[in-house]
Amino acid sequence: MIRLRVWIVAGLMCLASAMAVVARPSIRMADQGPAIDLETVFPRQFGDWRIDERVPVVVPSPDVQAQLDKIYSQVLARTYVNSRGERVMLSVAYGGDQSDSMQVHRPEVCYPAQGFQVLSVQRDALSGVAGRDIPVQKVHTRLGSRNEPVMYWVVVGERVVGTNTEQKLAQLSYGLRGRIPDGMLVRVSSIHPDNQAAYAAQERFLREIAQSIAPQYQSRVFGSTDL
Question: Whole-model pTM?
Answer without folding.
Answer: 0.83
